[in-house]
Amino acid sequence: MNGTPLKQIPARLIEWALPYWTRGEAGRQTPQDLFRVLYLGWLAAFVLKVLGSSWDVSWHFKWLRDDLAPPHLLNTVGTVIAVALTIVHWYTGYGVDRTASRLIVWGTGVFLIAIPLDLINHRVNGIDITAWSPSHALLYIGTALMLVGVTRGWYLGSGRYAEITRGRRALVLGGLFAFLLENVHFPELQQEYGVLELASWDRGQPYAEPTLLEFAANQMGQAVDRAMVLKFSLPIPDVVYALYAGVAGVAVLVFARVMVGRRYTATAIAGAYVAYRCLIWPLLVGGGFPPSAVPFFLLLAGLAVDLAFLVPIKQLRPLMGAVLATAGVYGGLLAQDRVLEAPPYAPQAWPVALAALVVVWYAVEWFTGRRGLTAAAAEDRIAMETRTAETEGTAEHGTSRDAGSDAGPEAASGAASGAASAPTAVSETASGAGSETGSGAASEVTPAPAAVSKPRP
């Protein structure tokens, strides 16, 4: 688009995209430029959705709900982009395999169904005083399915392009898991904002506007007093916060560590999410919105996951990892509560969290190994696809030389052998340096040929 006048950009975009708009089954060979545009689009959609939803929670702890509030509009822009990309994947089959396409379509469908249900819920019941309500849960579930589908699409597809380096594949995959962690943790913002909302009432300077408190009190049939503010701010049992973070949140970090395969993957993803929360905190507070408690304890949970993958005995890793992660979550909350501020949690529930996390961790490692979704499996698959493509290219070159020169078959055979042996070495090296998980199930994922050039109209 360099040098193209602004008014000509839409026409140029249509001219570029139109040849791709053909019906096809999921798993089609996707040209590299189209693959890049599709996943840049998904990253943009998720950024807008995260920004809008983060602003939305803070907004609802200050003012009465408004369907056309700026956070809703920002989130809507991200949703529109996501819907458009879903249609492209579903119709053309580009950029995803069948499973990823179904996850994205189902996730988008659940999300779109949840929107009118949530609006109806608010019309009938007024303020929905918790982020844990059924209509809100559908929004998180739909977004989670979308994210899982997009993550699978990138994980399987990005290795087919030599121009997408191993580092870039890992960076984008880690970014998608950071979005997934944000989505999974999102309901807990109820408690993270609520604990400071209640504290503001106790100080005599409530963050919520009087109209919001009066509306909520009328809806509950109570006076505007501390009991009402407590029910408005913290309607969820204390046991939920740490238990949910210690099982669901850590499970996302385990998935990320297995699939990305880098040594500090879980710590980096947890750190990215905490850094994002720290970044938007002053922006929201500076704009006059209520503050929230930041889940710093997730850093210890992420570090615990990474440390667990240093355990050489794979069968012991989930048990050791669950012990470390549970200690990180509950110990981190204890320290955070004393030094800064933390939502209410039930420390006596740690044995339940530990037992649940052990089961979930074993399930994650079994599932990723069985489905060939480990970092080592990805490297083996990339090496196999590269070896196949180079062997086919060498064979075609050898045929051409046989027809046009006196070169013997030994030369072509030697070239094919060299082309095959190099990727094998790369596979062995990458598998050892990547994830410690096994790659025996990599063969379950059907390899796809290298990308093809842009289709002609």
Characterize the structure shown.
This protein is mostly helical and 457 residues long. The chain has helices at residues 9-17, 32-60, 70-92, 98-125, 134-157, 166-185, 189-202, 210-220, 226-233, 239-260, 265-286, 297-308, 317-339, 350-370, 375-404, 409-433. Helix 2 (32-60) packs antiparallel against helix 3 (70-92), helix 6 (166-185) runs antiparallel to helix 10 (239-260) and helix 12 (297-308) packs antiparallel against helix 13 (317-339). It is globular. The protein starts with 8 loop residues before the first helix and ends in a 24-residue tail after the last helix. Mean pLDDT is 82; it is low at 403-457.
Q: Please, how many helices?
A: 16
- Following the backbone from N to C, one meets helices and strands in this order, namely HHHHHHHHHHHHHHHH
Rg estimate, integer Å: 25 Å
Largest β-sheet summary: none
* Structure summary, number of beta strands: 0
Provide mean pLDDT, rounded: 82
Going by helix content, strand content and strand pairing, the class is mainly alpha
What's the helical proportion of residues? over 70%
| Low-pLDDT residue intervals, each spanning 5 or more residues | 403-457
The fraction of residues in strands falls at under 5%
Which outline best applies? globular
* Measured distance between first and last alpha carbons: 20 Å
